[in-house]
Amino acid sequence: MNTNYRFSFGPWNIHSGADPFGPPVREEFSFAEKLEFYKQLGFDGVQFHDDDVVSSADALWSQQEAEAKQMRKLLDERGLVAEFVAPRLWEHPLTIDGAITANSAETRKYALERSKRAVDIARIVGAKDLVLWPAREGTYMREAKDPIASVGRLVEWMNAILEHDKDIRILGEMKPNEPMDHAYVPTTGHFLGLASLTVDPSRVGTLIESAHAILAGLDPSDEMAYALYHKKLWSVHLNDQNGLKFDEDKSFGAVDLRRAFNQVWVLERANYGQNGEFIGLDVKALRTQSKETSTKHLRNSRAIFLRLVELARSLDAAKVEELRAARDYEELDLLIVKHFIG
Fold this sequence. Notes:
Blueprint: E1 7-9, H1 31-41, E2 45-49, H2 50-53, H3 61-78, E3 81-86, H4 105-125, E4 129-132, E5 138-139, H5 147-164, E6 169-172, E7 182-183, H6 188-195, E8 204-209, H7 210-215, H8 220-229, E9 233-238, H9 257-269, E10 279-281, H10 296-314, H11 317-326, H12 329-341
Parallel strand pairs: 1-2, 1-10, 2-3, 4-6, 6-8, 8-9, 9-10
Antiparallel strand pairs: 5-7
Helix pairs in contact: 3-4, 4-5, 8-9, 9-10, 11-12
C-alpha cells in the first residue's frame, strides 16, 4: 500500500540564522509571511509551540483563547492543519533548572499549568497531539537532582495531562543531550518504558527526530522500527546530522543519503502515514543563506524524501529477500549502492 505523504514544519524552521555563537544574519519573516510559504512549498501541516499560537503563554486565558481562535481561522482559510502543540517549557526564567523535573515545587506547578493550557490551545486549533520535548529535564551534574524522583515526576506530569483531557495524546520527542549534559529519558525505548506506567498508555507515543537518534549513537531507522513495532510512531522529524556534535538540523539526506534512505524504507514498509501521520521536517537553513533563499532547506528536504520514496518503491524486494536468505550481504550491499548510483 503506497502512502500519499503529508508534510509539516514549524515556523521556527524559517528563521534569522542566529545560533549560540552568533547573532541573526538575515531579517525575520513575519508569522503571516511564513504561513503563506506552506502551500507554496508543498506542506499541509503546521507544528506549533504554545507561544507560536498565542502572543504570551503567561497571558490571561481569555486573551489566549481569542488568539487561538484567530489562529484556527488563519489555518482554515489557507487549507492548513495544526499537527501538534508543544509547551515551550525550557525558555522561561523559572525553568532554568528544568520544568517537570525541577527541584522547585513552584516551577513544577508552573510547568504543569502551562502544559494544561497548551492542551486547551491545541483543542482550539484542532490538534489532538501534545509533544513533549524534555529539553531541560536532566542535569549538568549528576548530583544536582534526585534521578529516581525525576523519572517519577515525568510520569506524574503525563498522568495529569492525560486526565486533563480525555482525547489528547502525548508524543515524546527524546534527545540524549543539549541543552542539558545528560537527559533523564534519552531515547525512544526509555520513553516507551515510561509510557507503559501512565494511566492510559494507549494515548502515549513517540515523535522520533533523526538528529536526536544520531546524537544518541543510534540509527534513526532502527529507532523508528522499534516504535513502529510497538505501534507508537505517531510522528517524525526528519533531518540530518554530521556526527556526534550539537543538534545541526541539516536538510534531510544532506549528510548520509543511505541513512536517510533506510529511514524512508522502514516508513514505507510499515505503511507509515496511512492513519494521517505527517512527515515532519525539522531543518534549519544554513547560516550563509540570504533571506530570499532561506526556505530552500525545506524545499530540498521534501524533494529528497520523495526521491528516496521512489527508490524504496523501485528496489527489487524479491532480490533483497533472496540475498538475505543466502546470507550474501556483500551482494546486498552492492545491490543497494548500485540502486542509488544507477
